[in-house]
Amino acid sequence: MATPAYKLHYFAGPGRAEAARLLFAIGNVPFEDVHYTYETLAAFKPKAPFGQVPVLELADGKMLAQSGAIDRYVAKLAGLYPEDPLDAARADMVAFHMVDFMDLFMPTWSMAPEERAKARQAILEGKGKDKLLSLSKIIEEAEAAGGWVAGGKMSYADVIVYVYLSGIVSKRMEGVPPNLLDSYPVLKAFRNKVAKLPPVLAFYTQHAGEDRASFRPDDE
Ligand SMILES: N[C@@H](CCC(=O)N[C@@H](CS)C(=O)NCC(=O)O)C(=O)O
């Protein structure tokens, strides 16, 4: 088998590389998934443009950093980036919103476990709730307009929404109730719709494991 033209450098868990992995898989674009631990990452850091991962390495050795840039590039390779400029902007708008949502939780990672759980609950009752409610409205409109966030067909934005909604209820997010999306039925239904797409189901059958259990459909 030929060596894939792309190497995605990240930790083994989903995190900030998961959307790119899934976009590669949905688009049937071969890539090598290179995994690090915090210890082994030290040797790779000097090659990473900003000393962080994810990094996408191209066949000629060029290194592309920032998950948002990687996701958009891979979306284009996979045929999942809208061609119409306004549809593309709408897809980007929703993708940036999901990053804003996840970024709310960033300060909680350095907290002690008990403090962390409380802080996460507070986020979910405050700004996190606002962001999920506004997302719910957008998804409701999308469902009424053909079922997808941008341009009437599936795009990378739908994948990002699915990845972040699945990630927020994963085992790693202690303090976040696993049934959080019961309070957001539109989001829950949308997450399940994407989870049941054949390439998505196939990806999570191939990548089974506790840290990805929440990426499966709820009714399994
Ligand atoms: N804005 C960047 C953030 C990248 C980032 O924070 N990466 C973390 C892992 S999720 C990292 O490399 N941590 C190790 C370190 O900074 O040494 C992106 O979205 O790619």
From TrEMBL:
<dbReference type="GO" id="GO:0006749">
    <property type="term" value="P:glutathione metabolic process"/>
</dbReference>
<protein>
    <recommendedName>
        <fullName>Glutathione S-transferase</fullName>
    </recommendedName>
</protein>
<dbReference type="InterPro" id="IPR036282">
    <property type="entry name" value="Glutathione-S-Trfase_C_sf"/>
</dbReference>
<dbReference type="InterPro" id="IPR040079">
    <property type="entry name" value="Glutathione_S-Trfase"/>
</dbReference>
<dbReference type="Pfam" id="PF02798">
    <property type="entry name" value="GST_N"/>
</dbReference>
<dbReference type="GO" id="GO:0004364">
    <property type="term" value="F:glutathione transferase activity"/>
</dbReference>
<dbReference type="InterPro" id="IPR004046">
    <property type="entry name" value="GST_C"/>
</dbReference>
<dbReference type="InterPro" id="IPR050213">
    <property type="entry name" value="GST_superfamily"/>
</dbReference>
<dbReference type="InterPro" id="IPR010987">
    <property type="entry name" value="Glutathione-S-Trfase_C-like"/>
</dbReference>
<feature type="domain" description="GST N-terminal">
    <location>
        <begin position="4"/>
        <end position="82"/>
    </location>
</feature>
<dbReference type="InterPro" id="IPR004045">
    <property type="entry name" value="Glutathione_S-Trfase_N"/>
</dbReference>
<feature type="domain" description="GST C-terminal">
    <location>
        <begin position="84"/>
        <end position="220"/>
    </location>
</feature>
<dbReference type="Pfam" id="PF14497">
    <property type="entry name" value="GST_C_3"/>
</dbReference>
<dbReference type="InterPro" id="IPR036249">
    <property type="entry name" value="Thioredoxin-like_sf"/>
</dbReference>
